[in-house]
Amino acid sequence: MHKMLVAVVLLSVGVLACGCNNSGGSGAAAGGPSAPGSGGAAAPKSHGTVGVSLLTMANPFFKVMGDSMQAEGSKDGYAVTIQAGEMDSARQKDQVNDFIVKKVSAIVLSPVDARSIGTSIQEANKAGIPVFTADTGCLDPAAKVVSHVATDNYGGGKLAGEAMVEAIGDKGTVAIITHPEVESVILRAKGFKEVIAKHPGIKIVSELPGRGERDTSFKTAQDILEKHPDLNGLFAINDPSALGAVAAIEKAGKTAQIKVVGFDGMPEAKQAIKDGKIYADIVQYPDKIGEMTIQSVGKYMAGEKVPPVNLIPAGTYKKADAVKDASLK
Predict the structure, then answer these.
(1) pLDDT for 47 beyond 90
(2) Least packed by Cβ within 10 Å: which of 33, 108, 136, 329?
């Protein structure tokens, strides 16, 4: 009888042990290493959450950048939460405050307003949360940003200026549709103006805001055309602005007269180049910006030194490129 009782107890212990394994208490089911020969890859160790607030999600550029951040974060064990200020600096500040309250591991920003975002970054600094910027930077010297990853916007602006000179020659009038609250745009405009200044026969006759939005830029372009009917060229600081300007130029029947140079490299703008509506586009690589930003977060959190600024060179895309582009109609 005693031997039979011992056997029953031992059998019960064995069943309980098997039940704990199946419930995920250890091994691959609990996120640990896969069993040898199981064929499953080990899941990356969780490193916390990265809170991201982008300029807007209405522009496909930022959608690509956000998707790239999430994909890179999943490789490195970070949950990347994407939000957007949607051109509203107060809304973006609320998002940053929410990240601070939730004690995220790091914050990534594409500031709506390069200056006013400084106070929010300073709050994150006080909370001990590292802040990174992507595509657009912060112009408040009192705000501490670990690293900024972006297109070389100043260099890209110079490429835009060179494309405009090529498009209209050494003589004519040019306008700029801008968005002066954004640091990257300030740099693009600066580079563009420096190139144009080397050609005294070209005069910049207007520089008006379009908020980086198609509808607003359409109305801005209409205002410019009304005051400057003989305009020869128009530089738009991003593709939504360029496409809005194109619509206004088409409506005015001046497509052949006015050469447009845009900035981004969106598929729709590339198609407009192939169709002869835009002369050139300065191409950015939002997937690389997103990927490099999250890599910088991971390196910094691992105790590695990261450069304060990482700039990715832009390229120029013209009709010859569009003709060879298999992705276009």
Answers:
(1) no
(2) 329
